[in-house]
Amino acid sequence: MKIIKTVAKKMDVLHSLALEKWYRYGVRRKNKNKNFTIISNDCWGGRVYMDLGLEYNSPTVNVFIYSDCYLKLILNLKEYMSCALSFKENSFYEVANIKRNETKTHYPIGVLKDIEIHFLHYKDEEECITKWNKRIERINYENLFFKFSDAYLVKEADLYAFDALDLDNKVCFTAKPYENLKSNIWIKDFKKSDFVLDPFKYRWQYRKIFNIVKWLNRSFETK
């Protein structure tokens, strides 16, 4: 029985790897938009660059940003991107401090004026600064895409504020339907959750509901 379970587990892994390879081959072959910048409130943007085999042209790769900070950021993107990145020991979001202490993941917290950038997948401030500055230089302000979600202390008013922004390429993933939001993509698989979940661990939930290549190519083809 133990051997059967081990073999079955290995088969599941191989099947998963084959699906990943198939998916990436398909999106890379169809994608025409090779030089774009995704400003994302979490790791979803990094997942897109990885799947497409493209350079990280965004400083928001491998970070997360609480909703009110994210909205401030995209409203004045160039201004915030011109600010020097500094750091702080504790967040002004108490939920972040509690979670960092509970999980013992004291990742760097970056500061740009009055907003926080949570460098969840970075080991130290030096790595943050190096990669942040390098990726800021790659931002393509002529080909911007914006991704938001109902995670990270978002309020319903934040979703409507994002939807109302005069941005050509924006999408907002939510765990609940919002029929009045044009930018909204409801991921039904998360309907039992209060918000959408990790875009890496649950990547297929995002992939099957949202055609990333169609989204990117639509902007590229209208330029």
Taken from the alpha-carbon principal axes, the silhouette is globular
| Rg for CA atoms | 18 Å
What is the helix/strand order? HEHHHEHEEHEHEEHH
Widest β-sheet, arrangement of strands = 1-5-6-7
Query: Please, what is the average pLDDT?
Result: 93
Q: Total helix count?
A: 9
Uncertain segments are 4-8
| Overall SS class | alpha/beta
Report strand %.
5-15%
Q: What is the number of independent domains?
A: 1
* N/C terminus separation: 59 Å
Number of strands: 7
Helix content: 40-55%
Main sheet? 4 strands, parallel
What would a concise description of this structure say?
The protein is of the alpha/beta class and 223 residues long. The chain is 44% helix and 13% strand. It comes from Flavobacterium psychrotolerans.
Give an account of the 3D structure:
- This protein has 223 residues and is α/β, with parallel strands linked by helices.
- Helix content is 44%, strand content 13%.
- The protein contains 9 helices and 7 strands.
- The strands form 2 sheets. Strands 1-5-6-7 form a 4-stranded parallel sheet, sandwiched between helices. A 3-stranded antiparallel sheet has the order 2-3-4.
- Helix 7 (156-164) links the parallel strand 5 and strand 6.
- The longest helix is centred in the first third of the chain and has 29 residues, at 2-30.
- It is globular.
